[in-house]
Design brief:
This protein is an all-alpha fold and 318 residues long. The protein has helices at 5-27, 33-59, 67-91, 97-104, 107-118, 125-143, 148-174, 180-194, 199-208, 211-238, 241-246, 250-263, 269-285. It is globular. The relative contact order is 0.20.
Length: 318
């Protein structure tokens, strides 16, 4: 059973993140994008902060990042936890939950582009092909709907994916020296502080909204934010990184299924086609071609003391 726990954790994470798109869509008519983001982060940061403080007390030490690492943490806290969340909330005022999830999942391509530009990882041909296919999918979604409405939603979702990609690169640098719980709790806390001026608006809107909206905000903070990130960190620690990352491909499909079940909405045929192109582009961009291994002919070594020749083993070039 222990060996199955990381896999079960990943399944829970995928359902939690997929459900977030549906809940955002459901309570969107009653809570504005910025207020919803602030409510989610206040709840999530509080829950994560409690767990982080308990762990620190148990270990008898509080470790906080410093210098450049702290600056990067503040950066992705503001861009990812705060602004990204606002943009996703706003995008779902124009697009259904499933289409938004499909568009946001072009983020791995953005990470690859940033890595190629700033980390000198280059631009393999398959990456260029994947980028072209994904942006063709985004164009299909943008220009086959009802004009400006879909275009605005696509722009917001694409901007959210861009911030996601930038923030993932920043967080990877932070995680070299900071544990996942600390990095996540601090990021959520920074996001909540950035949006704190909108807290009064959040409480006014929730007071006038149905009770289900308050429940939705609490759910977004506890399940897709606090619980899902903790489970993600646990799964990442016990599962190969490639397997963990590729599991996110399930989120758009689950979002479409949950949206159809609870909100009676599905993307249009063109939306599904464009979304499929987006995910296909991401999948192609992450393919690593196998290099043919060739071994140069063995070179006879100098005769050993016994008079018999020996051969020096040569590793395969790759």
């Amino acid at each position: 059973m222990t060996n199955r726990l990381p896999a079960l954790a990943l399944v829970a994470v995928m359902f939690a993140w997929a459900s977030a798109f549906v809940v955002i869509r459901a309570i969107g008519p009653h809570v504005s994008p910025i207020a919803m983001a602030e409510g989610r982060l206040l709840v999530g940061a509080t829950a994560l902060g409690v767990v982080w403080a308990m762990k620190a007390l148990y270990n008898g030490e509080f470790r906080l990042p410093r210098g450049r690492t702290l600056a990067l943490t503040v950066g992705y806290g503001a861009l990812w936890f705060a602004l990204y969340t606002v943009l996703v909330n706003a995008a779902e005022r124009h697009l259904d939950a499933g289409t938004t999830a499909l568009l946001v999942n072009i983020a791995p391509i953005i990470v690859a582009v940033l890595a190629g530009s700033f980390l000198h990882e280059g631009f393999p041909p398959l990456l260029v092909v994947g980028i072209s296919i994904s942006f063709a999918g985004a164009a299909v979604i943008a220009f086959t709907g009802d004009g400006r409405r879909d275009g605005a939603g696509v722009a917001l979702a694409a901007a959210a994916a861009l911030l996601y990609g930038i923030s993932v690169v920043a967080q990877k640098l932070v995680l070299r020296t900071v544990d996942p719980l600390t990095a996540t709790a601090l990021g959520a806390g920074v996001g909540a502080l950035v949006l704190l001026p909108w807290a009064p608006r959040l409480f006014r809107e929730l007071a006038a909204a149905p009770t289900s909206s308050t429940v939705g905000v609490l759910y977004l903070g506890i399940v897709p934010t606090a619980l899902a990130f903790l489970l993600w960190a646990y799964a990442l620690a016990h599962t190969p990184a490639g397997v963990t990352a590729s599991s996110s491909y399930a989120v758009p499909g689950l979002s479409i299924l949950l949206s159809w079940t609870f909100l009676a909405e599905t993307p249009t045929a063109w939306g599904l086609f464009g979304g499929a192109l987006c995910l296909a582009g991401v999948a192609i961009s992450r393919i690593t071609p196998r290099r043919r291994r060739t071994a140069p002919p063995a070179t006879p070594a100098r005769p050993a003391a016994s008079g018999r020749p020996t051969t020096t083993p040569v590793g395969a070039s790759c």
